[in-house]
Amino acid sequence: MSYTAAPLAPKDLPTPEEFHKRKVALISGITGQDGSYLTELLLSKGYEVHGIIRRSSSFNTGRLTHLYADQHERPNNLHIHYGDLSDSTNLVYILAQVQPSEIYNLGAQSHVKVSFEMAEYTGDVDALGTLRLLDAVRTCGLERHARFYQASTSELYGLVQSVPQDEKTPFYPRSPYGVAKLYAFWITKNYREAYGMFACNGILFNHESPRRGRTFVTRKISRAVADIKLGKQQCLYLGNIDAQRDWGHARDYVEGMWRMLQQPTPDDFVLATGETHPVREYVEKAFRIVGIQIKWEGSGTDEVGIDTSTGKTIVKVDKMYFRPAEVELLLGNPAKAERELGWKRKVDFESLVKEMVESDLKASSNLVEDQN
Ligand code: NDP
Ligand code: GDR
Question: Are 270 and 337 in contact (CB under 8 A)?
Fold first, then answer.
């Protein structure tokens, strides 16, 4: 821990409005894709940023190295605290010490397929972890002062009820991850109503970037395309390539998170692009960027993608990547966020795929360091 400022006693707290002007943010999940972009944004706005990181036997701060400076050598506005959403005492301690004016709860076991294998752990961290953090806010007497952002998800919609999905569309989660996030959604809303907390749910549709974890489909594809182009990999194995997603850029979405906490009153908002694309289209576009044209042959788990210029099979569908229950179609309607937050995504699908493939081409050629 690098932070030693003395916390304010609850009786000394200024009004909630004055407290909010302090611009002190606490981020759980700071080492993740969104955590790193949000940290960049908040630092650029003059915030003091505190992040919770998990102890790991290997470095897990790769996405932050360009932002972090040793506080002994070159003090800056980014402070790191060891912690975990499964450890209430630790959360209370961090909150009491930092007294954040804004809390972003991004920490989660965020992989949908993994959640089927680690259902209890996912529930503990994603559902109860949110409760622990909300209760830590209350324990520290900050419930009228700290503003709270909950990383809710389009996975809440799950089995399609209607499209496009917006704030009024009913939820029907399809995975232990989705069900855990449903609890987190409602407990956030409940604490807003029960204790008057400034707590918001951002219902965010898929957002990607060169910093996306490598086991999520877009990054798995962009890296494989680069490796196949450079002769380092022969074939890309995928699951359900007919699933459709509403994909935006993570940098745009963290801007929306911040905007939610700057409103006069707390509310829940969908962030999405309003477009949907099947996984197979992402594959085709990504290969096209490196000059490879794909044609599909076969169907179901026998489907393959063939490089039309060489005749080689470079994509194979493999049933090991299918999920016990799938979310087939996500398409969000961001009208409320556009109207009330003045938020609009800047990066379109084509530019997103291009940025990810070009970044992985550089990383795979060792021209730049991997961003995660
Ligand atoms: P990542 O998987 O990239 O990051 C997850 C973060 O949570 C990492 O910093 C991870 O730490 C941390 N974490 C995991 N378990 C714990 C724990 N027990 N205690 C504390 N921290 C923990 O996710 P994203 O950045 O993509 O997503 C951020 C949040 O937004 C997540 O909650 C996700 O579920 C949600 N979300 C994401 C969307 C997306 O498309 N990206 C869409 C909608 C919602 P470590 O680095 O050590 O693993
Ligand atoms: P998702 O993202 O489940 O939507 O959750 P992911 O990229 O894992 O999957 C998207 C779709 O692609 C299909 N798919 C594959 N997925 C992976 N990971 N690997 C494969 O090989 C593969 N082949 C096909 C999947 O079946 C799925 O339909 C992400 C996470 O960031 C969540 O935390 C977040 O809440 C939601 O987005 C919105």
Answer: yes
Question: What is the percent of the chain with per-residue pLDDT over 70, rounded to a whole number?
Answer: 97
Summarize pLDDT for 129-143 with one digit per residue, the tens.
Answer: 999 999 999 999 999
| The overall pTM is greater than 0.90 | yes
Backbone phi and psi for residue 23, each to the nearest 5 degrees, phi listed first: 55, 55
For the CA of 239, the closest atom of ligand 2 is 23
Say whether pLDDT at 57 is over 70.
yes
Q: For residue 318, what are its two tokens?
A: 């493999």
ipTM over 0.95: yes
Token pair of 21 as six digits: 């002007």
Residues with CB under 6 A from ligand 2: 110, 112-113, 153-155, 206, 215-217, 220, 238-241, 243, 245, 279, 321, 323, 326-327
Top mutation candidate among 58, 90, 94, 106 for ligand 1, by most atoms within 8 Å of CB = 106
Determine the angle formed by the axes of helices 349-364 and 217-229, rounding to 10 degrees.
Answer: 50
Over the stretch 169-184, which tens digit does the pLDDT of each residue have?
Answer: 999 999 999 999 999 9
Q: Whose CA is nearest to atom 46 of ligand 1?
A: 31
Closest CA to 259 of 367, 348, 345, 186: 345
Question: Over 70: is that where the pLDDT of 5 sits?
Answer: no
Closest ligand 2 atom to residue 178 Cα is: 35
d(CA 32, CA 139): 27
Give me the helices (H) in 201-264, please: 217-229, 250-260
Q: How far is the CA of 326 from the centre of ligand 2 (A)?
A: 9
- Examine the pLDDT at 75 and tell me if it is beyond 90: no
Nearest CA to ligand 2 atom 37: 206
CB-based burial label for 5 (10 Å; 0-12, 13-18, 19+): exposed
